[in-house]
Amino acid sequence: MTDSAQPRVFLVDDHELIRSGIRAEIAGSVDIVGEADEVEAAIEMILERTPDVVLLDVHMPDGGGQAVLRAVVEHATTTKFLALSVSDASTDVISVIRAGARGYVTKNISGPDLIDAIYRIAAGDVVFSPRLAGFVLDAFSTGSDDHPLVIADPDLDQLTARERQVLRLIARGYSYKDIAKELTISTKTVESHVSSVLRKLQLSSRYQLSHWASERHLN
Amino acid sequence: MSITTSSHAVVGTPLRPLRRGRDNCILGGVCGGFATRLGIKERNIRVIFALLTLIFGLGILLYMTFWLVLTRSGEEHSIIQQIFQNRREAQLVLVAFIATIVLIITLQTTGTRTSDGFGWPLLLSVFAGVAVWRGASLDERGHLTEFFDTAPFIGGAFSKSRKGLVLRVVVGAGLIFIGLHQLHHIGGFWGSAGSAIIGTAVLVVGVLVLFAPWWLQNVRELTSERRERVRAEERASMVAHLHDSVLQTLTLIERAAANEGDVVRLARNQERELRQWLFSPETVTNASTSFVGLVGAIEHDVENDYGVRVELVTVGDCVPDERVSTLVAAAREAAINAAKWSEATSVSIFTEVEPTTISIFVRDQGVGFDLDAIPADRQGVALSIRQRMTQLGGEAIINTEVGSGTEVQLVMPRSQ
To answer: How far apart are the first and last CA of chain A?
Structure first.
C-alpha cells in the first residue's frame, strides 16, 4: 500500500453512472487506481496495476465478473475481489463466490458500509451480506427427505453447527461485533468461521452446490 | 340566360354503385351487393342464385364470376384487378386457368360422364375459388378464414381435434372407395381401368408440378408469418409489463421528485417487483401457496406503508397451512411494530424452514424499549404476538434494551 493505509481500489462496471456514483462515495477514503467498463480491459489493467481490492460487477457483457475472476485470480494473488450486483439471483451470487470473490454486496449499499466492506476485504476478511448468508445456508441445507444427500467429503461438504449459527446471525442482520457478543466469542473467531465457510463454498465439490438452485425449485 | 347543370342527374332513388357487400355478406357478398343495388331483400337474391344453380350449375358459375369481377365495398380494386396488378400472381392464375380448361376438355373428350354437365361449371368454380383466395385483400381473407373455421363441416374437418381427425378419415376413405368403385365400373381393374388409373396419376402429377411451387410458397409464408406473430406476442407481453410497472413508476418518481421518501419507496417497490419478475416468477404466481410468498407480502406492505426498508432473507420454503399463516401474521405484527416505533430506517427479517421447525426473526437497530415498562398502547400488540405463538405451540422471545434495537424471535414446531 503506497498512500498511508488507504487500500488501492479498482472499479469494474459497465455502467458509467454506477461507476461515477461509487467513485463519488468512496473517493476520499480509498485510493482509486483505475476503472474498466469491459471484461477484457479489466483483466489487462488488473494484472498490470495489481490493486488491493477490485470492486467487480457480476453482470457484464462477455461473461461478467466470473470471466474476469477466471482470467485473473491465479496471477494476481495479492488482489482481492468484492462482488457488486443489482440482482439477487442466487445462482449468480454463489457462482461468483465460487469463482474467487471474497465477498458480495448489493449496489444499493450505503457509502460508509461499502467503504467498511472494502477495508475488511483488504485486511483479508470475508464480507457476507445477510442475503449471501441466506443463500449459503440454503446451498448447504441438509436437503429434504426426497433428496438424501451424498456427502463426498464431510470436511468440505458440511457446515459445522457453529458456522451455521454464525451464518444465521449474519442473515438476521447482526454485525460481526454483535455476533461475537451474542455467542461470547471474539470478533476474530467470528471472522475465522466466515472464512472457513467461504473456503468450503469455493472448494466443495458437492453435487448440490451446482444444482441446488434447480433442486430447490423441485421441492 | 343561364345554363344550369344539375349535380343530381338522376332524380328518384340514387343509383348506388354495384359493390359486393361487406356487412350483409355470407361468403363473397355478391348477393348482398345486388340486394343493396336493387333494393331487394338479400334472401330473394340468394334464392334466385340457388335456383340458377339447378341449371347446369349456372348459379355457382355466375356467383364466382361476380365475386371475381365486382369490387368489394370499401375497397379500391376487384379481385381480378388485384390479381393482374401482380405479374407473378397473374401468371399463376393464368396457368391454373389453362390447366382447368385442359382438364375439362380431356374429361369431355374421354367421354367420362361428369354428372350430366355439372362437371365443368364445378371445375371452373373451383378454379375461381383459388383465384379469389389469391386475389382477396387481407381483410377479406380474414373474413373467409373465419367463415370456414366456423362452418359446421369444413371448420370441423380442419380443426386439430380428435373429432376433426375422425371426420377427415371417414370422408377421405369414403371418397377413395367411391373412386375405386367407379373405376371398377369402367371395365375390370386390368381392362380399361388400368389406363384410367395411369391417366389419373399423370393428371395428378401434372397438377402437382403446376401447383407445388405456389403451394410451397404459401406454406412458407404461413410459417414465417406464425413465427413473426409469436415474436410479436412475446414482445407485446414484455412491453405490457414494462409499461404497466416500470414506466408508471418512473412517471410517479418524476412527479414525486421533491419528496425523497416517496422516491425511495417507489424505487424500492419497483426494484422488488422487477427482481421477482425476472428471477422467481413462480413466487409471483404462487404468492398464496408459498411461505416465502407470504413473507414477501410483509416486505411489500411494510415498505409501502411505512417507508422503511425491509431486508428479507429466506432459507427454505414450504406450502403454508393455517398454522403457518398465523405465524406469518405474528411476524407481520412484529415488523409493523418495528417500522412504527423503532425509528430505524431498516428492518431485517430472516426466515428459516427446517424439517421440524419454522423460525422467523424480525430485527431492527432502532431505539429499543424497556420490556417491563411497555406503553399501554403497545402492550396489546406484544400480547397478540405472544398469544399467537403460544396457540401454535411455539414461543416468542423479544430481546430489547433501550438504545440497542429490538429483535423478535418466533419459533414454531412444524406439524407432522
So the answer is: 49
Q: In 10 A of CB B9, how many CB atoms?
A: 7
Q: Of B340, B338, B350, whose CA–CA distance to B405 is shortest?
A: B338
Which residue of B264, B315, B356, B416 is the best one to mutate when testing the A interface, meaning the one whose CB has the most A CBs within 10 A?
A: B315
Q: Which residues of B touch A87 (CB under 8 A)?
A: 275, 278-279
DSSP letter for B86, please: S
Out of B279, B317, B407, the one facing A87 most closely (by C-beta) is: B279
Neighbours of A177 (CB within 10 A): 10
Of A108, A137, A173, the CB nearest to B348: A173
Q: Which of A108, A131, A219 sits opposite B313 (nearest CB)?
A: A131
* Per-chain mean pLDDT for chain A: 81
At B3, the pLDDT band (50, 70, 90 cuts) reads very low
**Which residues of chain B have a CB within 8 Å of the CB of A174?**
363
The answer, yes or no, to whether residue A116 has pLDDT greater than 70, is yes
Please write the tens of the pLDDT for every residue from B292-319. 888 888 888 888 888 888 888 888 888 8
- A144 to chain B: closest CA residue: B355
- The answer to whether residue A145 neighbours chain B at the CB level (below 8 Å) is yes
Size of interface A-B (CB pairs under 8 A): 48
Collapse the DSSP code of A15 into the 3-class scheme (helix H, G, I; strand E, B; otherwise coil) and give the result. Answer: coil
**Each residue of A148-171: pLDDT tens digit?**
445 555 566 678 889 989 999 999
Per-residue pLDDT of B176-188, as tens digits, reads 887 777 766 665 5
Query: How many CA atoms does the CB half-sphere of B299 hold within 13 Å?
Result: 23
**Nearest CA distance, A124 vs chain B (angstrom):** 26
Residue B271 main-chain phi, psi, to 5 deg:
-60, -45
Rounded-to-integer distance, Cα A63 and Cα A72, Å: 13
Residue A145: the pLDDT is 41
Q: Which of A89, A133, A173 sits opposite B363 (nearest CB)?
A: A173
Q: Give yes or no for residue A215 having a pLDDT over 50.
A: no
A217 touches B: beta carbon within 8 Å: yes
Q: Residue written as cell 376433426? A: B164
Q: Are A92 and A39 in contact (CB under 8 A)?
A: no
Long-range Cβ pairs for the range B16-20 (8 Å, 24+) = B18/B70, B19/B70, B19/B71, B19/B72, B19/B73, B19/B74, B20/B66, B20/B67, B20/B70, B20/B71, B20/B72, B20/B73
Q: Which pLDDT value is given to residue A186?
A: 92
Assign B134 a pLDDT band (cuts: 50, 70, 90): confident
pLDDT-above-90 percentage for chain B: 4
Whole-number pLDDT of residue B285 = 47
Residue with cell 466470473: A66
Hey, which residues 76-105 in chain A have their CB within 8 Å of chain B?
Answer: 87-89
| Among the listed residues B329, B394, B334, B390, the one whose alpha carbon sits nearest the alpha carbon of residue B364 | B334
